[in-house]
Structure formats: structure tokens, C-alpha cells
Design a protein that fits this description.
single chain, 489 residues, 2 domains
Length: 489
Amino acid sequence: MIDILPQATTKYSLDYYATDPIFSVPVADVQADAKKIAARLKGRTIWMVNSTARGGGVAEMLPSLIALMNNLGITVRWAVIRTERQEFFRLTKRIHNLIHGDRSSGAELSAEEAEIYAAVNAENAASFKKELSPRDILIVHDPQPLPLGQTLARELGLLAVWRCHIGLDRHTEATKTAWRFLRPYLDGYRHAIFSAPEYIPDYCTDRSTIIHPAIDPLSHKNQELSVTKLTGILCNSGLQPSYEPVVTPDYRHRVSMLSENGSSVPPGELGLLFRPIVLQVSRWDRLKGWAPLLEGFVRLKHSTVVNNGSNKLQRKQDRLRLSRLVLAGPDPAAVADDPEGMQVLREIQERYASLDPEIRRDVSVILLPMESYKENALIVNAMQRCAAVIVQNSLQEGFGLSVTEAMWKRKAVLGTQACGIRHQIRDGRDGLLVSNPEDPAEIADKLALLLNNSIRRYNMGRSAQRRVYDQFLVFRQISGYLKLLAKLI
């Protein structure tokens, strides 16, 4: 039942990172931390367990994290729970929404839902058990596989740690409902890891640690791209017509764009290389604030007027007039643990179709292929590097690696006061934060402020990259895990 994924590999070893003066210090630090615990971890396997191998921040973080930990001489494997029961993922999506304070997700979770939750995890635990030894360590990510860790910790006596990437910085009836439901399944776990102190439920305060999510700076999604490679990616993926021959072949699975009638069509010329691009890349989830971002961009467009006076003012108006909004996310059919994706995308498409034709020409809804992790990551990398402003308009956000990625690329990010985002962006220094992500007027004002001030965008981008270097690179994340394990074993 459970899927044991092939051993994760990374293109570069830690020794390679260390040859770059940018990374030499953090690499030396993590190697020193590994030496302190390596002997105590000998003969043990650390298992990372989650609910999907692709789509979402956890699935993107794990390959580099696992590969680099193995590079340190620590045995780490990856397992993904599997089920054909769609009601399980509808339930876990509801839990996810409740933890984020979504009142529309209903009242108490039922005994029938608890039975589904436990049954799917029990099936996966039974098939996983034969892969484990009592000396192994389980690190179980997020609510979906939570009961699995409890079952295996009790039956085999192994060390289990729960890694929760989501949360809300306040207590509501919705969050209380979710945490009441999850509490019994945490019995048997030795420790829990959260992304922010605000997320820790009361019953976990005495056995919790904060470890921030992080990015691999040399991964396909974050590596530097030469002008030639960037344009090649855009052409190979279908995001840019090839006006000249391109050395690399077209991708087998190319990007598509939603038309006003809901069909998927080739994007054609989006102007990514030529126009001021406002970009948001995320899952198709209502909590990502897609609808108010679209409305905010419409307001921005309505604010542009022709001015025959000041040349400087006219250039600003031209910049806003030429700006384009690109809303990009994965093909929802390829993300197994998010059953609401298709419905949210349909709602966005309906609003897109209702736009004034002139404004609709400046909005693109892009579906990113998911068949190849490498190609998907390179496409996102290229799109982010083309953007003038990257937005993460989340109503709630556990952390938001799309923000981290944009900051690493020296982009000024328009974010929100969602807890995970404000833990990264210092308002006015590394980017701008809207106080209300559901207010299109505020979104439009902040977009105009960023689009029309290139010097401020540049300085924010420099500060943002340094912020990621200091706090949110994979080396610091690995050190956090190693220091915790040293305490627990």
C-alpha cells in the first residue's frame, strides 16, 4: 500500500556547495553538526513520510533535504502513503482548512470520518511495517499520515516525530475542532516540529521545536539561469514562441493556458521577456487569495489614464498599462491530496471569462505540467526570474516556500500578514505586506507602488536574498533536524 520512493539524489554534493564562497560557511556548520551525531545514528534509518510525492511545499523540500542528509552519511528514506479512497483526501483537506481557521469547513468531525482516517493509515502502516526496524526513526509530515506514526511507534517501539507545516496564529472554533480531532493520534509521538511558535497547540508546548522550511539554492527551481538557458526553458515549455533556433528540444509536456471558454490552449506570446509581469505561483486553493488578487489587478488596470504632461508620469502609466497578471499553478489532476483544486480553478476561470476583453488580454491563467519534476521546477524558476513583482496573496499560509524562492531570486514580493509570510518578509524591507488580502483596492495600491519604483524593488530584492541566506537555506534546516535528533536519541 505505502510507496517507498527511490533514494533521493542531488545534482551536487555538499563538497561542491562548499567550493562556492557563498555557501562555504553554512556547509561547514552543517558538517560539524553531523559529526556530533553521526555515530549515534549508525545502523538507523530516518524515514520521512508524507502524503504526496509531487505538488506542494513538502514534496518539493524533501528530495534535497533527504539527498543532502545522506551525503552527510546519515541514512534517510522517503515513503508516501497511498489510497484509492477519495473521501480520505476530502477529509484531510477539511482538516487542513480547519487548521487554517476556515469556518465553512463545518463543525465537529464525525466518528465515520475518524474511522476513514484511521483505516487508511492502518492499511499503510501494515504494509510499511516490514520495511522498518525498532531502531529506525519516523518523521511524519502533516495530518494526513499522523495515525500511521502512532501505530508504528506503539507496535515497534521506534522513535516518532510529527512535523506539522501548517497552522494559524490564533485560536478559533475551527482550529479548536481540528486540534481536538488530531490530539488522540499524537499519543506515542516523542516530539513535534512546527514552522512557527504561533502554530503549537497547547498540548504540545512541552515537546515541540521550531524548524523553518527551507530551499535548496542549487535546485532546478532556485539555481541561477543564464539568459540563453532562461529563454530556452520558456521556448521549450511553450511559454515563449521561438523567434530563433533553440538548442534544447521541446518538453514532452508543455504549459497550457485556460481560454475564456475553459478549454486548454497553447499560451502563445505572453510577453514574459518584455512586459512588467505580476506573477503568483501556487496550488489552486482558495486560501491562496486568487480571487482578490485578480480583482486587485483589474482595479490597477482601471487606474491607468493617458497623461500628456509629465514624461515621468506618463512612463509610470505606460508601465501599469503594459503590466500583465500571470496566475500559475499545477494541473490539479496531478496533485493527489488536494481534491478541491479543480473546483477552485473552475471558479477562477469563470471570473476570468467575465472580464472586460481588454483587461482579459492582460491576464493569463497557466497550468503547469507535473509529469517531470525537473521541467516543472525549471519552468517556475524561469517565470519567477521574468517577473517584475511576485505575489503571494495568501489568506493563511503555513510558511510559503514560493515566497522564499522569490526572495532568493532578489525579487520584491507582495505578501500578506499570514503568519508564515510575515515570518519571512519584513514589511518595507524585504517586500511589502497587505494588511487585508481580501481587499482588492489595497492590493492594487501596493502593486502600483512596487511596479512604479524600480530602485525600491531592487533594494528590497537585495535585502530579501540576504534574509533567505541567513535563515531559510536547506543547510540551516538540516542542522535543525540534527540538533533535535541529538537530543531525542
